[in-house]
Amino acid sequence: MSDAAARSATAIAADVQAGRVSAREITEKALARVAAVEPRVGAYLTVLDAAARAAADRVDACIRAGERLPLAGVPLAIKDNMALAGSRTTAASKILADWVAPYTATAVARLLAAGAIPIGKANLDEFAMGSSCENSALGTTRNPYDLERVPGGSSGGSAAAVAAGEATIALGSDTGGSIREPAAFCNVVGFKPTYGRVSRYGLIAFASSLDQIGPLAHTVADAALVYDAIAGGDPMDATSLDRPVEPASARLRDDLRGCKIGIVRQFDTQTLGDDVDAVYRRAYRDLEALGAELVEVTLPTADYGLATYYLIAPAECSSNLARFDGVRYGLRVDADDVREMYARTRAAGFGPEVKRRILIGTYALSSGYYDAYYVRAQKARTLIARDFERAFQSCDLIAAPAASCPAFRFNAKSDPYSMYLMDYYTIPMSLAGLPALSVPCGWVTPDGSTRPMPLGLQLCGPLFSEPLLLGAAHAYESATGHARAHRPALDEAVDHV
Amino acid sequence: MSEFEAVIGIECHVELKTDAKMFCGCPNTFGGEPNTNVCPVCLGLPGALPVPNARAIEHMLRAGLAFDAEIPAFSKFDRKNYFYPDMPKDYQISQYDMPLTQGGAVRYWLADGTLKVCRLTRIHLEEDTGKSTHAGSSDGRIAGSTFSLIDFNRAGVPLMECVSEPELHGADEAVAYLEALRRTLLALGVSDVKMEEGSLRCDANISIRPRGSRELGTKTEIKNMNSFRSVHRAIESEIARQIALIERGERVTQETRGWDEARGVSVSMRSKEEAHDYRYFPDPDLTPLSVAPARVEELRAQMPERPWQQFERYTGEYGLSVTQATQLIDAPALAGYFDRVVAIAGNARAATNFVLGDLSRLANERSVAVAESAVAPEHLAELIALVEAKQINSKIAKELLERMWDGAGSPRAIVEREGLSQTSDPAAVAALVDGVLAAHPAVVAEYRAGKVNVAGFLVGNVMKASRGKADPALVQELVKQRLG
Ligand SMILES: [Zn+2]
Fold first, then answer.
1. Which of B381, B402, B418 is the last residue of a domain?
2. Phi, psi for residue B461 in degrees, rounded to 5
């Protein structure tokens, strides 16, 4: 790709730091790229032209003053469920369509302090509830590799922005797979750190005990760079972990010698079709070729992941989303009394998937059902986490698919349950709070299509194993280079016009 | 005595005294321009997260220990979910099944000195809500109002909820319970406990039953009481209302009633309690709290004397009246002063008389607190010792006290310097007596003729002759002896 934004964050930051190019020049190129492709991709809900230029000028001033900024001038897409002071922050919901955040999320603030340039607020499934980005109430995002297909979700805008060269790095949030699945669909790297590693302060909550912010990027090295900048305790988030963070950038490696990688017996890829199965089998062989020892592990309770997740996440969301009531901010539909105002506001402001989850969650927490649903789901969650602990006694990392299929066409998953199934491979790791990532691992051409679509290999490690995990992913990525095999569908047009 | 017995439980909300609010850094202060002490956290803005205030948790532990509650090793915060415009998140962070403290009791005393115990159903920590003002109606009530204004300055202030068992049997007991609760929290410094500023708010659950019955009658909940006096009036009025209903053959309806202080009556607010399902669940934004047993022991060791213990000491050990003891307990600085005087002088009765008598009178006249006056406890103890040893009489003592108030310092030094020592030498006093008798032969004759009350005149003259220093008892004795 010829665009500055498509080059690696490491390279851009080095150039800006050395004064070979200014952050402002990088930013102008990124904004030009956005202007060129955004009408077709729709990755952003808000493009932050003015804020981006102002940030770039600040970064250039800092560089001139001799400061060192690890992400100097690197174009950044911010999932629009993260607060950025002075910018519209919508969670892709009508209920927050005009809300301007008065404060900045910790993870965002850390990236800006490291020199990143906020290019735009990226689209998502409303309140991060979905796996295709189709649940956004405010816009459609298309997969840059096939504009007829979804980018995945919920961090679909973040993944598409990076894939389309509209940003070099992006922040996403992952609750049950919301970084990993769109990363797989859009041929980028997506990384969900250990729960508590990155502050959630300023992330509009979906399911507080599962939500975790993480990077999306073209390369594992870039994801590691972002992770190093955002990880670490935050006095504003009581669930953030105040333990030292070992920089992952320093641990990137080129082989997997001495690494035991577990293949989960329950995750039989044969059920995913021959093409997909072949890609994953090859991926596992490639891991072995890099020196890893493959071992079979079992996660007997992994099958309960989906059911467990769809009780805990809605329960928390039913409470988290209560505050959108029309009283203090956001949409208000007036009525004669406050009860009716609540009802009308929420009826008009929330989309069908959000309403469905609020209802499921309210039911799961109701008196008389609480023990049968919520308490049981918590017990199942503990069992799933124990399964992983046991598995990690015989391996260092686990390899699995990041999604059960490549990106599908719009409206292909019309019933909610088939959409929920998209997260089958990512949810167990989320429930256990484990760090996990998706790295491009091959291509398949879906039936009835001529365009090859990417697949993602999921790697998952024990709690706090981020450096090991990113290091291993880097080895796999360097040896295979799947991401470079095809270019986004829009580049043909753009490059030759 | 009525044939009915009242059964009362009190539910209190106490705002804890901390620098910051419960889950954010906003100042915890009363009043202020509306919506000035607010931030993303206490406004419940999207993405904001709560971080617990360690000081408030410590206040709770200390309150729990003061009420002899158990302190479990683990505790947690839960969300209480319901929609309410004053509540920014539409859930309240509270504690459901694992509060910081469990059980406990409030020990209180009645006007006759009886010490009583009322067990606590629960004490837990939660966050306060904002406050609504309803506008557009003639009386400020929500009915008829056209809009409401909300002030979130109070939202997120740490709040202790304290619920008593229904073990109080009348307005006197209820108010005595509240007073004891208030004194304890004041002594711990965990709250201002001011009903007029809302840092103490309470509701009363009241029912009546035939005396001797063990069953509970239908209860009503009385709200909007804004002083201890109004709690007393409201409870008396409600008991009378319920008795009248029963005696007319009617029934008490379960309902919430609001006390109207101006009219002295309660008014039904809502009769059908909404069946609330609060959908409590552990707050996923807050990790479980673990309380180190060593810390609990440390706090227990630092526990100051509790008001009921002080009451027992004053009335039992020191022999103070209930009123005197209560007066001292309710004036902690004065009580501290008093305790120091007693510790040095060893004479509680004399200390009580001086501290609550002459010294308090002086403090009133001069508008300076006793503990802040120039009269050091050591000097008052000296004065008490001088009186006790009969080195000075009470008249001189009073004069000395006034001079000490004005900064004269050690009374012993004054007595020595000015030769104010009481004359208790029988020979010297006898000489004075003889002199006075000789000077007033007519009066002596009157006495001998049976007018015995003239002795006072003679005694007075002897005292005058001694310039007040003679031991009055000795003078009395010698005058009678000489005349008899
Ligand atoms: Zn605040």
1. B418
2. -65, -35
User: pTM above the 0.95 mark?
Assistant: no
Q: How far is CA A315 from CA B66, B93, B105, in A?
A: 38, 16, 36
Question: What's the whole-number mean pLDDT along residues A143-158?
Answer: 98
Of B49, B85, B287, the CB nearest to A327: B85
The residue among A232, A213, A233 whose CA lies nearest residue A223 is: A213
The tokens describing B454, both together, are 């003239």
Residues of B in contact with A239 (CB under 8 A): 49, 284-287
Q: Given pLDDT bands bounded at 50, 70 and 90, which one contains residue A282?
A: very high
Strand partners, B127: B158
CATH number of the structural domain spanning residue B477? 1.10.10.410
Cβ atoms B321, B111 nearer than 8 A: no
Chain B nearest CA to A221, separation (Å): 29
Query: Which residues does A contribute to its contact with B (CB < 8 Å)?
Result: 81-83, 89, 91, 96, 99, 101-103, 105, 200-205, 207-209, 235-239, 315-316, 318-319, 322-325, 327-329, 338-339, 342, 362, 365-367, 370, 374
B150 touches chain A (CB under 8 A): yes
- Looking at the complex, report in whole angstroms how far the Cα of residue B223 sits from the nearest Cα belonging to chain A: 23
- Chosen for mutation from A81, A213, A325 (greatest number of chain B CBs closer than 10 Å) is A325
Residue B414 shares a structural domain with residue B430: no
Q: For A209-249, write each residue's pLDDT tens digit.
A: 999 999 999 999 999 999 999 999 999 999 999 999 999 99
Last residue of a domain, one of B398, B418, B438: B418
B277, B396: one domain = no
Q: With helix as H, strand as E and coil as C, how does A127-150 read?
A: HHCCCCCCCCCCCCCCECCECCEC
Mean pLDDT of residues grouped by 10 in chain B (484 residues)? 90 97 96 94 98 98 97 97 96 97 97 97 97 81 82 97 97 98 96 93 97 93 95 97 96 94 91 78 97 95 96 96 96 95 93 94 93 94 90 86 92 84 76 88 88 87 83 85 82
Give me the helix-helix angle, B472-483 and B455-465, nearest 10°: 130
Q: Which domain holds residue B410?
A: 331-418
Q: Tell me if A238 and B89 make a contact (CB, 8 A cut-off).
A: no
Q: Is residue B336 within 8 Å of B342, Cβ to Cβ?
A: no
Q: Hey, is the C-beta of B136 within 8 angstroms of any chain A C-beta?
A: no
Pick from B48, B49, B79: CB nearest A319: B79
Domain ranges of chain A: 3-257+435-493
B441 with B379, same domain? Answer: no
Domains in chain B: how many in total?
3
Nearest CA in chain A to B275: A367
Which residue in chain B has the smallest CA separation from A338? Answer: B85
B101 and B234 fall within a common domain = yes
Whether A192 sits among the annotated catalytic residues: the reply is no
Give the distance from residue B50's alpha carbon to the nearest chain A alpha carbon, in angstroms: 7
The answer to whether B281 contacts A365, with C-beta atoms less than 8 Å apart, is yes
Asked if residue B167 belongs to a domain, the reply is yes
Q: Do B120 and B17 fall into the same domain?
A: yes
User: pLDDT by residue (tens digit) across A82-130?
Assistant: 999 999 999 999 999 999 999 999 999 999 999 999 999 999 999 999 9
Rounded to whole angstroms, the Cα distance separating B183 from B164 reads: 16
Please name the residues in contact with A16: beta carbons below 8 A apart, sequence gap of 6 or more.
Answer: A22, A23, A26, A59, A60, A63, A69, A72, A73, A115
Q: B99 alpha carbon to ligand 1 midpoint, in Å?
A: 23
CATH code of A3-257+435-493, in short, is: 3.90.1300.10
Verify whether the Cβ–Cβ distance A319 to B81 is below 8 Å: yes
Q: Which residue shows structure tokens 């309240």?
A: B92
Closest approach of B165 to chain A, Cα-based (Å):
24
The answer to whether the beta carbons of residues B126 and B193 sit under 8 Å apart is: no
Please indicate, yes or no, whether residues B263 and B208 belong to a single structural domain of this protein.
Answer: yes
